[in-house]
């Protein structure tokens, strides 16, 4: 009986996905307008919530594109993701499209111990967390 309870509890835990993580210095510039990203306007956009630039976002520079955001006005705009690489975890606010995750260079340097440029890309574990973790 205890084994069955333990096994059923495992299914309640969110599972991490293996994803490719890259960086784009666009996401490091606090003055860049949100009008250039998929989560700009529309009912799910961030402009409609009062944010105007990347720097106005509460989790800047921990922002970027996420695979869950299919395009403009996606219901996944503003989702928060925990990325883990080599036992280092960061939270990323999803504001644009990406094949995996395409994040600010600053954020990727934290994730990779300042090796983002040398590595170019890494495979990380990703799990969606509550948007409040990213300040929304």
Automatic annotation (TrEMBL):
Top-level division of the source organism's lineage: Eukaryota
CDD domains found in the cross-reference section: DPBB_CEPL-like
Keywords of the record: Secreted, Signal
GO CC terms in record: extracellular region
InterPro entries: Cerato-platanin, RlpA-like_sf
Main location: secreted
SUPFAM superfamilies: Barwin-like endoglucanases
Pfam families: Cerato-platanin
Classification via Gene3D superfamilies: RlpA-like domain (2.40.40.10)
Family: Belongs to the cerato-platanin family.
Name listed for the protein in its UniProt record: Immunomodulatory protein
Species classification: Eukaryota, Fungi, Dikarya, Basidiomycota, Agaricomycotina
Gene that this polypeptide is encoded by: Aca1
């Amino acid at each position: 009986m205890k084994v069955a309870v333990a096994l059923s509890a495992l299914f309640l835990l969110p599972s991490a996905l293996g994803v490719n993580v890259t960086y784009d210095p666009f996401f490091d510039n606090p003055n860049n307008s949100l009008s250039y990203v998929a989560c700009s306007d529309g009912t799910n956009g961030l402009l409609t919530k009062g944010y105007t630039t990347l720097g106005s976002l509460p989790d800047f520079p921990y922002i970027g594109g996420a695979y869950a955001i299919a395009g403009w006005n996606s219901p996944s705009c503003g989702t928060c993701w925990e990325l883990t690489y080599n036992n280092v975890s960061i939270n990323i606010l999803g504001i644009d499209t990406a094949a995996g995750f395409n994040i600010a260079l600053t954020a990727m340097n934290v994730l990779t111990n300042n090796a983002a440029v040398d590595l170019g890309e890494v495979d990380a574990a990703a799990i969606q967390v509550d948007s409040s973790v990213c300040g929304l």
